[in-house]
UniProtKB/TrEMBL annotation:
Family according to the record: Belongs to the SIMIBI class G3E GTPase family. ArgK/MeaB subfamily.
Gene3D superfamilies: P-loop containing nucleotide triphosphate hydrolases
Source organism: Natronorubrum texcoconense
MF terms (GO), sorted A to Z: GTP binding; GTPase activity; kinase activity
NCBIfam families xref list: lao (TIGR00750)
Name by which UniProt lists this protein: LAO/AO transport system kinase
TM stretches of this protein: none
């Protein structure tokens, strides 16, 4: 048995050290990682994947900590992937392993892993999606992905998470105006955290107004498939429960107020996550969601592989600098170069089609 086969066996047997090694292998793109991930696929599909995103200062890490603690109190195991900004020097996660996950320190059934965004759009690298699969195959019941909350590009989280919660801090009217063109559109649940601070009522009202106007929020642009909507009802004021809802033809997108530092509203938020999961499964949209995710993974891998192939071809032609110089001197143009480099790929595809015919 090879070392990778032993590693996979240990992962499936629930050894946390094996999980850590698998994720390191995935993140570092070590030799053999693709075969390993391929084997992992057959053992996935059992975990709920929750994305937590939003503007900086919204209290994402504290809320993730309380979510993990509450899930553990309910007897469920948790995996947390914290996507940190990439170090400009090493490409590694700047914040390291999150010391803010204080409540669950020492609990082996809460596995926390920080990962570098590695400069990819949306803060989620291909490695993150593979790490989710590793945690899923390991047997984690809940997998929480916390992102850097950088804005529009956070929409990439949709491709990895089943349910997306967008956090908005109280008194953040300007933030809402900024966010509504981006990450608010991907929310399955809105969370106004730090709800004990001044301005929370106003923030809830602004979110409600935004939803009623149909100007962003809950995927109201219709791009997500499960948010075609008409606002039917909205009720107000937080009393430890859901503060507001957007009732749609399918999913009802709630606004939940929480005070994560005190654990207030966390149970209600978890209930909304469970409700959304039930909706996705019962409506058949979960299967559609997973299909879409796999389609995007295939496209991503093809882009990566073709890019690597073309880089090799460029090197054979003397490198891209030499080609750029030939363009500068008027000997050729970028379109001609791209066509010449892709000709062998197209020829191979044509040969395969001929053989299949």
């Amino acid at each position: 048995m090879s070392s990778d086969e032993e590693l996979l066996e240990a992962l499936l047997a629930g050894e946390h050290r094996a999980l850590a090694r698998v994720i390191s292998k995935i993140e570092n793109r070590s030799p053999g990682y693709r075969d390993l991930v391929s084997e992992i696929y057959a053992h996935t599909g059992g975990a709920d994947v929750i994305g937590i995103t939003g503007s900086p200062g919204a209290g994402k890490s504290t809320l993730v900590d309380k979510l993990a603690e509450t899930y553990r109190d309910r007897g469920e195991t948790v995996g947390v992937i914290a996507i940190d900004p990439s170090s400009p020097f090493t490409g590694g996660a700047v914040l390291g392993d999150r010391i803010r996950m204080a409540s669950t320190v020492g609990d082996m059934d809460v596995f926390v892993r920080s990962m570098s965004a590695r400069g990819t759009l949306g803060g989620l690298s291909t490695a993150t999606a593979d790490a989710v699969k590793a945690m899923d195959a390991f047997g984690k019941d809940k997998i929480i992905i916390e992102t850097v909350g950088a804005g529009q590009n956070e929409i990439d989280i949709v491709r990895t998470a089943d349910t997306v919660a967008v956090l908005v801090p109280p008194g953040s009217g300007d933030d809402i105006q900024t966010l509504k063109a981006g990450i608010l559109e991907i929310a399955d649940v809105f969370v106004v955290n730090k709800a004990d601070r001044p301005g929370s009522d106003r923030t809830v009202q602004e979110l409600r107004d935004m939803i009623q106007l149909g100007d962003g929020g809950g995927g109201m642009s219709g791009g997500d498939g499960h948010h075609s909507q008409e606002v039917i009802d909205a009720h107000d004021d937080w009393d430890g429960e859901v503060a507001d809802v957007e009732e749609t033809a399918g999913w009802t997108t709630p606004i939940v107020e929480t005070v994560a530092t005190k654990g207030e509203g966390v149970d209600d938020l978890i209930s909304e996550f469970a409700n959304h999961r039930t909706y996705l499964v019962d409506s058949g949209e979960h299967a559609e969601q997973v299909r879409g995710r796999y389609a995007e993974e295939i496209r991503t891998l093809l882009r990566e592989d073709v890019h690597a192939l073309l880089e090799d071809r460029l090197a054979e032609r003397g490198g891209i600098d030499d080609l750029a110089e030939s363009v500068r001197q008027g000997e050729t143009d970028p379109y001609s170069i791209a066509g010449e480099l892709l000709d062998p790929v197209e020829d191979c595809l044509d040969e395969l089609e001929t053989e299949d015919a």
